[in-house]
Amino acid sequence: MLIAWAVFSYSIYWTYSVSLHALRGQTIGKKAQGVKVMDISEDRTPSRRQAILRDIGAVTAGICGTLYFSYVVVAHKYLGTEELLNHWPWRVLAFANLGWYLLELTTS
Asked: What is the pLDDT, as a whole number, of residue 24?
């Protein structure tokens, strides 16, 4: 059950972001701010491929986070969230996600 929840929770953000960028060119937050993402021609919204490449950092961090969490659970090393936060791979993924988020904020 933990692994199923991890797959859902780690993929929901980038699925939301990629889908809305490809379909409408903006997430709810971008719509509220009046920002729209366009492809390089500036005539249309990005394709699904372009939207995935745009969020590749979040996609990669989400996949790596899911794989690492699954390993911890399967190897019976999961002792709770507090203990997991002290593992260095988890911290690397957290900082990678934070960096990608800050990049998103500063370039939109």
From this structure: 92
